[in-house]
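Deliverable D4.2, example record:
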Amino acid sequence: MQVPAAAERNKGPILAVLREYAGGGAGALRVLEVGAGAGLHAAHFARALPQTRWQPSDIDPRALRSIAAYVEATGVPNLLPPILLDVSQGWETWGGTQPATLDLLVSINMMHIAELRCTEGLFKGAGVLLKPGGVLFTYGPYAVDGQISPQSNVDFDRSLRQSNPAWGLRDTALLRELAEANGLCLERMVDMPANNKSLIFRKL
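Output generated by the structure prediction step:
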């Protein structure tokens, strides 16, 4: 059961934003978390948001083992066992999730350490699987209309691209285009600690 320091630090601020989009409706809210990593976030959010039915997923077998350990150790009833999910593949492969059945699709710190086709796949999946009015919530460091700031994010972007030229901070202008191409709109950008942002995309 992995305990990433960054996830431990940011789970509170992320939850504060998520709460605004995980309330209200009758019945359980269906949530799919893509790239759930160690599972710390999934366990924390599911416990704090008992009205959700939280489905964590990842492509990495080590992550899936860690998530499964969190599911077992926490015993949170609305935290489901993890599913294997490759976000770059079509939504038909996403664990049987049906069109227009998700209230919330969550992706935390994934885009900048994955190839662009993963980001494209995330938006395509969101366009099909979210209910009208549903939300795609993403969190991480981003470029905003061609600008990366502060310098620490510029350095981070450079180091990512040196590790893998297909990685790097994604630009909100590109994400806005991907959203609009898939029936979503960028509704809100929230500044977060450590020069990150939460982005709220709404399914039209």
